[in-house]
Design goal:
Number of helices: 6
Distance between the termini: 89 Å
Order of helices and strands: HHHHHH
Structural class: mainly alpha
Length: 125
């Protein structure tokens, strides 16, 4: 990450007179691509937050950082992950989906007990 860019962003936020929450969102959005790349690499959100906070790239608590990750990073990761996983599942996913669709006993013609409140006279002893 280019430290000059981050410094310019901080100067711009101070000059603009932005409110603290707006400044926090702007600072997070400046490092969003870095966060997304590190999450894809397998690093935990805690590790990424500590790194960015120690490097003075962001000045937000972990809960706020996590909220921003879920809001601005996770939706894109979920769609990418779903698209990546769907071809791999193939027949197994189809079998599981079809197993949930059990035909009912009345429509499939499978013999079984059916309660009839009005008895058939010829079947009585």
């Amino acid at each position: 990450m280019d430290s000059k860019y981050v410094e310019n962003l901080e100067d711009w936020i101070k000059a603009k007179g932005m409110k603290k929450p707006d400044a926090n969102v702007a600072a997070f959005l400046a490092v969003r691509d870095l966060v997304k790349a590190r999450l894809d690499d397998g690093y935990s959100a805690t590790t990424i937050h500590e790194f960015l906070r120690d490097g003075k790239h962001i000045d937000i608590c972990y809960d706020t950082f996590l909220k921003y990750v879920h809001r601005y990073v996770q939706p894109a990761r979920k769609t990418k992950t779903a698209a990546r996983r769907s071809p791999q599942l193939g027949a197994a996913a189809t079998a599981i989906a079809n197993a949930d669709k059990k035909p009912s006993a009345t429509t499939s013609g499978i013999p079984g007990f059916k309660f009839n409140p009005i008895p058939d006279v010829k079947n009585l002893i």
